[in-house]
Amino acid sequence: MSNTSENPNPSSSSAKITLKTSDNELFEVEEAVAMKFCTVKQYFEDEKDNDVAARGSSTVIPLPNVHSAVLARLISYCKKLPQSNAVADNHEEEETKKKERKQYGTPGDLVDLISAANYLDFKEGLEFFNQALADHIQNKSVEYVRKFFGIKGDFEPHEEEKYREEYAWAFEGVDED
Amino acid sequence: MDLIPCIKELCAALLPWCLPHSKMHIKRSNLLDQGIKTTTLDDLHDSVLVEILIRLPLRSVFQCKSVSSRWFYLISTSYFANHVNSHCSSMHPHPPFTLLIQRNCDLFLTLNKPEFKSFKSPNFIATPNPVYNSNNKSVVIVEASCNDLLLCSSSEFKPPYQLTFYVVNPITKQWVVLPPVPLFGIDYRVGFICRYDNHDTLNYRVVYIPPYDAESKEMEIKVETFISEMGEWSESVVLCPGDFGRRGVPYKNLPFWWDNSCGRLIWFDPYNRECYRFFEHPIKLDPYHAQY
After folding, report:
1. Same domain (yes/no): A111, A94
2. Residue A26: closest C-alpha in chain B
3. Where does the F-box protein At3g26010-like beta-propeller domain start and stop, copy by copy (chain B) (predicted)?
4. Chain A contacts of B93, Cβ < 8 Å?
5. Domain extent for A166
6. Nearest residue, CB atoms, B31 vs list A112, A164, A171
7. Residues A127 and A146 in one domain
8. How confident is the model at residue A6 (pLDDT cuts 50, 70, 90)?
9. Which helix (H) or strand (E) holds B56?
10. A132 in contact with B at a CB cutoff of 8 Å?
């Protein structure tokens, strides 16, 4: 894949980096994959500065905010990274992308993935999962969004009613829950 | 009673041991089922939540504003609006646009989607101060546009004679009804400017010039300026600059009018209230071009 061509040092392209998740599981991942996580990259570079010999699998990078099940998904996403996150030119292409985004689990899973991707500073993944979650929310009723994401509506009933009257056009034609 | 936390702890302790054996299974199933779900949408940092919400279509954004006070606050900030704009311009090769078409009493607008959305006259829309009853058909005219807002008007040619201006946001379909103009006449001039102040708050000015006799030079005329922050019309008196066109065109926060009598541009600064004057900018134009 093109991942290796980005590597400044081709001989180390097969180097592995070990990541340790919040539940103490060890993941041995290719350097090219691990470097997509800026947090890991930063940690790795800091380590390298401290001790030149500390390279590759000898270093274990702890990720106390990421669960193994979430990391496994992020890594599998990294390996088949979509070509581009740009909006498709035609309707068909956009539908294909939507389907692709749908495969990454329920909205609840996506929140976990977004939270982890944000912690890892994994920009491409964050963009992808943000869009996947937005796909889930759009055209859904307010009640659905609240229920699904466990958010408590804290408006006074009359406040909410007034808002709905003012923006009645926005509340027309939502999908069935 | 104490059993449940115990079981939870036990599960948590066992989970790392269970996971390596069931990895294939995990990939397909819901993370929630694994009992490891920790994050909810409300746990996400504001900046992360905004990154999700800016990807929603506008209609959904306005719905989401009513989900909770936190969402309402986040969506109402200028930070959010700026992010929507930069996201749109980075994702879409063509910037969003609005096309307005007027047919009879209704305004139609179309966003980037190939569907026309009817944008009915204000008697069908809840306004803070509805001025029409349902059997009174008044035509709404688009007078000017500036920074994505429209200035519309409707006039009443039978008693009570009245000219009403509306400031309209065609995207959010909000209508703000201005108080009736102090001096009504058919042959009026109008200009509209809106801009953001230093605090990113939108304010606007509507310049309304009641009919006057353009022939009598050296005469003083009245200019009514609506100041959005004050919510009222303010009158000033200036020297008659001659005859000029009805609708001002905004440029650099100034409305410009074309002077019919001697082929020049006139601008008037509705924000400079200490110096209410008409400025004349003579421009050299081919007399044949001046017609266009």
Report:
1. yes
2. B20
3. 133-260
4. 89
5. 142-171
6. A112
7. no
8. very low
9. none
10. no
- Which A residues 91-130 touch B at CB under 8 Å? 105-106, 108-109, 111-112, 114-115, 118, 126, 130
Whether A83 has a pLDDT exceeding 70, the answer reads no
In sequence order, which ranges of B19-155 are alpha helices (DSSP H)? 23-28, 46-53, 58-64, 69-76, 78-91
Residue A47 lies in a domain: yes
Q: Which of A109, A133, A171 sits opposite B63 (nearest CB)?
A: A171
Which chain A residues contact residue B74 at CB under 8 A? Answer: none
- The pLDDT tens digits of the residues spanning A14-33 come to 678 888 888 888 988 888 88
- All residue ranges of chain B with pLDDT < 50 are 1-29, 32, 111-136, 289-292
Token pair of A139 as six digits: 């055209």
Domain assignment present for residue A149? The answer is: yes
Same domain? A64 vs A146: no
Tell me which DSSP letter residue B207 carries: E
Cα–Cα distances (Å) from B284 to B7, B241, B259, B267, B290, in that order, read 88, 18, 13, 16, 10
Same domain, A65 and A89: yes
This complex has an ipTM of: 0.81
Report the C-alpha gap between B165 and B180 in whole angstroms. Answer: 7
**Same domain flag for A103 and A167:** no
Residue B68: what pLDDT?
Answer: 92
Nearest to A166 by CA among A175, A174, A176, A158: A158
pLDDT at A140 over 60: yes
DSSP H or E segment with residue B16: helix B3-18
- Whether A129 and A151 map to the same domain: the answer is no
- Cross-chain residue pair A160–B93, CB shorter than 8 Å: no
Q: Where are the alpha helices (DSSP H) in A35-106?
A: 38-50, 68-79, 91-102
Is residue A177 domain-resident?
no
pLDDT digits (tens, 9 = 90+) for B246-256: 888 888 888 88
